[in-house]
């Protein structure tokens, strides 16, 4: 399994969550015992986070590490797997599957 973390995407998720919580970079830095400059580098994806720093940020933002990292991992493998599962499936069943995924995606915040 060849998955890589997209640190730019991870940084954007951290930044968006920080803004949602109403924190400045300085405030988040204080909560995590990091400088505002370090937070800025993390948000731009120019610094690779240690597990300790990722944990401190997730705690300060009151979110889980997997939520921060999940969309930051390349999901090509997952799409290839879905494609191989659906490859020889009846078109009606594939359409039903895709419609179900669309409904779930549209309502993900309600789950």
Structure description:
- The protein has 111 residues and is mostly helical.
- The chain folds into 2 domains: 7-70, Orthogonal Bundle (434 Repressor (Amino-terminal Domain)), CATH 1.10.260; 76-110, no CATH class.
- Helix content is 68%, strand content 0%.
- It has 7 helices and no strands.
Q: What is the structure about, briefly put?
A:
The protein has 111 residues and is mainly α. The protein is built from 7 helices and no strands. The radius of gyration is 18 Å and the shape is elongated.
State the total count of DSSP E strands.
0
Q: Tell me the number of helical segments per DSSP (H or I, 4 or more residues long).
A: 7
CATH architecture title of the largest domain: Orthogonal Bundle
pLDDT < 50 stretches: none
In N-to-C order, the SSE pattern is HHHHHHH
Write down the CATH topology of the largest domain. Answer: 434 Repressor (Amino-terminal Domain)
Overall average pLDDT: 87
Number of domains: 2
Q: Please identify which CATH superfamily of the largest domain we are dealing with.
A: lambda repressor-like DNA-binding domains
Helix/strand-derived class?
A: mainly alpha
Largest sheet, if any?
A: none
Percent of sequence in beta strands: under 5%
Q: What shape does the CA trace take?
A: elongated
Estimated helix fraction:
55-70%
CATH class type of the largest domain: Mainly Alpha
The rounded Rg comes to 18 Å
